[in-house]
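Running low. Invent one:
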Amino acid sequence: MSDGLPILEVIPELKQKLQEENRVVLQAAPGAGKSTVLPLELLNEPWLNGQKIIMLEPRRLAARSVALRMAELLNEEVGETVGYRVRFENKVSDRTRLEVVTEGILARMIQRDNALEGIGLIILDEFHERSIHADLALAFCKEIQQVLREDLKILVMSATLDTAILSKYLNIKSVIQSEGRQYPITYKYEPEDKSLSIPEQIVKVIKKALKEDEGDILVFLPGVGEIQRTLEKLELDSGNVLVYPLYGDLPFQKQKEAILPDPSGKRKIVLATSIAETSLTIEGIKIVIDSGYARVPKFDPRSGFTRLDTVRVTKDAADQRAGRAGRLGPGICYRLWHEAVNTHLVPSRTPEILEADLAPVLLELAQWGIKDFKSFSWLTSPGIGAINQAAELLQKLEALDGGVISDKGKAMAGLPTHPRIAHMLLYARRENLLPLAIDIAALLEEKDPLRKDSGVNIALRINALRQYRLKGNYSGERAVLERVERLAASWRRLFKVNTDNSNVDEWEAGRLIAAAYPERIAKRVDSVDNRYKLSGGRMARLNDQDALITEEWIAVAHLDAGIGEARIFLASPVNPVDLSYLYLEEDVVDWDSRSGALVARAEIKIGDLLVKSKPLEEVSEESRQKALLNAVRSEGLSLFTWTEAVEDLQARILSLKVWRPQEAWPDVTRENLLATVDTWLTPYLGTVRKRQDFAKLDIYQILLGILPWDLAQQLDTLAPSRLKVPSGSMIKLTYSNDGLPPVLAARLQEMFGLTDTPVINEGKTKVMIHLLSPGYRPVQVTQDLRSFWHTTYHEVRKELRMRYPKHFWPEDPWTAEAVRGVKRKSDS
């Protein structure tokens, strides 16, 4: 049955390459036979020396199907020469020499035996999908080769891949190429109709293809939801057409029905997710209908949430989808987009490691002995933020202790699930809550079986599952409950526990959710808007009609990963008393801006959430000072009595800082005073307890205290606050913070007899004189008083004599007597 497959042409070259080298990359187009024929051809190679071949497939459905196909080629049952291992299921025996494994199975095999004794070849299939597990497996195998097993062979197989990056990583010079058997494909473009949903558009195109073309049809849809809605809308008149869904969580028997041709020869329509793009061979397909979309998980390290995004398919994936129509003969591919969109498609999919939650991978690395996750030999290095977030989570889950895997972490790594769920299950075993935890674990890993308007309480789902098991009256979607129960049964077998169908204690459910999501314990902060604060700091909201709105504390399992306030989708009430292992005790000394006083209390918190507090009788001086300094930083310098005299002193010091840059005049701007408040204010806080005490502090003397002693002695000499004028008055100098000349504002009559402009700063800075009328209105601004008397005074005198006729305005200002008050003409 393998005669004529393109892969046969390159097998001699591949065997020779594997004989000579321990790392080989094969690029083979879909349909070449690389996943089924090639591994069998390598089983009896002399360099294998009777050892096993392990082949990693990124998808469970593909792993089972590939193993089944290879067993058929050998006329054997699965589990003889060829077997498979997937999560919670394996078909292998003592005779099995070729195992197809998936997900984290290979990583756990490596962790159990890091020399991989008895294994001669590791094949990483469909590597172009850039599964995070495939990346990790390749890195581990590469390290095993370098340190323990130089004889271990690695074969990386891909349909489309940037082989240059992979070749550099593996330090190989050439890649073996195999052309696929591909017949011509006719493309028909059906531009997207924004007024219709994807299922509605797909149904239109299916009916068109049934009418105009011949052959079985493979439809690519983003996810299970679209598959189900398409099934509901697809009303076919003819009984000669069968419709099958195909996605990863279908029972294997149903998957086989979708893959194999109908025994009676009826025409078949397969509605599939992206699972059908590569390894699977769906027999009889001549028509492909591509929605143009895929659903991919994207992890946000800032929030710690993974969301499913519906995204435009990449070019390589679109080509692979279309290629399904050309396996048996000339085919047809309907694309639900305009032909011009092809030029804008992203060339290839993003490696999963750049968009995934890294917690499971880091736990594997920690078990491998890696401490510095950032320096690990990644094929594609993940973001630092994602690494830090994952490491922080593992620390919270007690899987890491100081960056090293703990005993609990090793136990968590041994369970085939996310570290969150593993932590919950181990906690439940200790607390005798395993049956309930298993039901919760199965529900958390599956689609919600209840309608969106059913309420968020997880107890509703657990009860629905238990009623389903009891074959009673249950609410919810049967197909989803069937998958949940299948998963729960696998967990029960693993832990050897019995089924529990009793009524759910929702408080115990809350304890278990908190064990999995310690940063999503939530406390109500606003009963009007049903707003909750999460222990991790984020805000979330319950629906107004939800029954849980009466609960002050809840544990949240699912919420959206959007920016800002989150919506809660799945939760359970929780009693904080049951979470004492998460308590953090802290003495808090803080400033209460509303009362304007220090507040000291002993607090017990879960993350950012206050559980309870009591007044603190004794407060350390360090804590008190820290709180008071924070109060100044928060409320600003307005806490002090900031008088005009203080502002004048501030301006004098800042002026000297500009004028004498070689000297250590301090920066006393408000901005810098706030930034350095701990260095200058701390010694004066001994008597401060409340806002009024701040106001009593002599901020003038405190600012003077900032000056070095020698500069403080020179301040009044270099930058006096007042200057004596000829009238005998001590006139205030007004300084500016930016070092402009200080202003001396005096009535003109007080300045008679003063020939030159006064100077300060050791004669280096002239003051700016503002000469005022008897009514204190400016008549002249000058820094050249001598020139003013010579030239401008006589013009000013004429105007002033008219405006102020009773005052004395001498012709000779040089010799006239300066006066403070009014000197009338008769006095002269």
Observations:
- DSSP finds 26 helices and 33 strands in the chain.
- The chain has a mean pLDDT of 89.
- The longest helix spans residues 785-803.
- The two ends are 133 Å apart (CA to CA).
